[in-house]
Amino acid sequence: MTEWVCAGVCVALAGLLRLAVDLLIPAPAPFVFLFPAVLLATLAAGWRSGVIALSLLLVGVWYMVLSPARLAPLDASESASLVLNGLSGLMVVAVAQGFRTAYGAAGAERAAKLEIRDLLLRELNHRVKNNFQMVASLLDMQRRRATDPGSQQALADALRRVHSMAQAHAYLYSPSDASDQIDLGAYLGDLCENLSDSLLLSGQVRLDCWLTPCMVSRDRAVAVGLVVNELVTNAAKHAFPSERNGTILVKLKQIEIGCELTIADDGVGLPPPGEIKTSGLGRKLVESFARQSGGILTIGGPPGASHVLVLPH
Fold this sequence. Notes:
By secondary structure, the protein is α+β, with helices and mostly antiparallel strands. 63% of the residues lie in helices and 14% in strands. The two termini are 54 Å apart.
């Protein structure tokens, strides 16, 4: 049924175009719109639709153009023209059907490749997730066995960083989304929610997030997320001693050259410039992740501490 409908629509379009051309150019070539209509019908619904359209158009040309209203026998030249155009129309049907078949095969092959790719990505993500869990379990086991408080704290920090990387991977590298660009604001919103839960912030210390949409690449978002993880964790641990009240702010906004990320707190502030431990692991990680993100990191304060990461387009 679809083939007949498609053929009928193509024949009707050819007839309307023929009538429109008759108004401008009286008595044009009788087969002027035959081949485009046959080609369109074949590409749209297959070779049967093309043959139906060709048959209807040949009958129409014979009745309306070559022998209008008299149904007289055709002379030799008219008969030869009708037969030759019919054979040419069949060649158009064959070529169009061949193209349609090749296009369908290419589409099926592409779909099969995409399915295999998605399967491999799912398997890769599953293995990466298992590796993160195994590393986290080993670190946690070693932390529990350690007796030195400094070693326990170092292992706890390493465990927290592994959890942060695992969360970033789970959020950003989903096989269902093949796009390289993601909304950094949405990702940081989820990250801040997880940090607020994992750091067990009391009512005295609040984590506020003011985030606007900002599209960045996935790898860049991972590096930015690790910067936020380090700075927010450090602020929660060191900025509010003796149960001091305060707020940690994570703010993302768009600026003329790209995006600007601010991580600030109203705590005790950073030590004087000469006393800041530039050799500490946390500081080195923040600077390394900032470089990986392609951003420019600046430190400010007092009051409190402020880190601003500018991410150019």
